[in-house]
């Protein structure tokens, strides 16, 4: 079975296309830039181009949709093309090609303006903290629509802080390690009972505040914990916006 990864040259895309084959996944890559290497099945093109997407979807069983502007300070013009139009084009091309399953990279920032709470549910209502967060909430809504209307299996990942190691004190709670990102994608690509799911994309962080149960129900069992990287990072002051809001200091930008 063939899986298409959009945004395959990005940080998460690179991690996934390097590691998922070890778990038995056959991949096709799509990005605006060529992924260097030999023997790579890839389509170079933009996700706002239906023709490029139609080629990319041929024979595909599942899509991991990562492409888009990842910046919390992205302008409306930028999210309009890459995230709003692009995500619609990806879901629609997937439907037209009979793709069974889509894993969509959403973000914690779709609910970033929610006051932080212990074990925040993965289906915390949408409260975006940025136009980027708005675009991710829109992607979740599209996913829900394609699941309900067309029976597509859809998992939306509200990803925390994807980095090789936690870069700051907030990330001690919101970190998603590369290894756990691979485990999460694998679980969503293989869960037999997936219909529509909203899950947090975070590791098993000792200081975590996001409910991991919906992910576990899909077969995602995170193994990494930001705590092992805590030395030298400050403890968050409760008054710090990074502590007060799910999306951290993005609420102030
Ligand atoms: C995200 O969704 C962003 O793409 C990334 O730039 C970080 O802001 C990350 O969330 C985070 O919350 O740490």
From TrEMBL:
Superkingdom of the organism of origin: Bacteria
CDD domains per the UniProt record, alphabetical: SDR_e (cd08946)
Sequence intervals crossing the membrane: none
Ranges where the NAD-dependent epimerase/dehydratase domain occurs: 4-161
Keywords: NAD, Oxidoreductase
Cross-referenced InterPro entries: Epimerase_deHydtase, NAD(P)-bd_dom_sf
Family listed: Belongs to the NAD(P)-dependent epimerase/dehydratase family.
Protein name, per record: NAD(P)-dependent oxidoreductase
Organism: Microtetraspora glauca
Source species taxonomy: Bacteria, Bacillati, Actinomycetota, Actinomycetes, Streptosporangiales
